[in-house]
Amino acid sequence: MAEQNPFLYALSSNNAWAGYKAHQNPSFFSKLASGQTPQILWLGCSDSRCPETTILGLQPGDVFVHRNIANIISPTDINTSAVIEYAVIHLMVKHVVLCGHSSCGGAAAALSDSRVGGVLDTWLTPLKAVRYAHAEELAAITDDKKRTVRIAELNVEAGVKVLMANFTIQDAIRDRGLEVHGTLFDIGSGRIRDLGFGTRGSTGFDGSSDEVVRGKHAQLVFRGGNAKMAVR
């Protein structure tokens, strides 16, 4: 049997998804086309295992997004700066979320003494700097996976500090109470953990609690880590 073309499969899947969404809510796409009012700006990693809208259990239009390799926040990156400016000033988002993740290839590369090659080494320089700034702590962690998670946490902390120094974000915090959060997504469990970096410190939320979440599009009922969806 010939291998299925991934792109053609994706197009077919999109067609099925669009049909399902339109059947589920006939006004969904017309409302979506009328404009966006996201409440969250998500700054995350480009890793294919970390699709923000999916892992947050939200819908198209709910999250404004910028992703790059290893979720690095650099004050000189005009791409990131433009996204922040548009989201905060024009879309008036209420939350800026910087999210790292476990099993991050960029974090592993920063911990390695080998070069990745090309522009990637230049891009990962800020993460290498995080490594050297915390060399003693990281060297004391003998488990490779735990060390990678720890540098990912430190990377989020460093990124939040850059965000908190951004004039656009500072003005929004002062004028309208914008909140900044540093988080980590655990790929192995599917849970997001609040790291306590940002405007309010830790919320104490570690993603392990069972609760009922009622959203605009559906009701997700969580019991013991399992979810059932009841569409309204």
Automatic annotation (TrEMBL):
List of residues binding Zn(2+): 45, 47, 101, 104
UniProt GO MF annotations: carbonate dehydratase activity; zinc ion binding
One example of a Gene Ontology biological process annotation: cellular response to carbon dioxide
Entry-linked Pfam families: Pro_CA
Cofactor: record remark: Binds 1 zinc ion per subunit.
Requisite cofactors: Zn(2+)
Reaction(s) the record says it catalyses: hydrogencarbonate + H(+) = CO2 + H2O
InterPro entries reported for this sequence: Carbonic_anhydrase (IPR001765), Carbonic_anhydrase_CS (IPR015892), Carbonic_anhydrase_sf (IPR036874)
One Gene Ontology term, aspect cellular component: cytoplasm
PROSITE patterns, A to Z: PROK_CO2_ANHYDRASE_2
Role, per record: Reversible hydration of carbon dioxide.
Protein name (Swiss-Prot/TrEMBL): Carbonic anhydrase
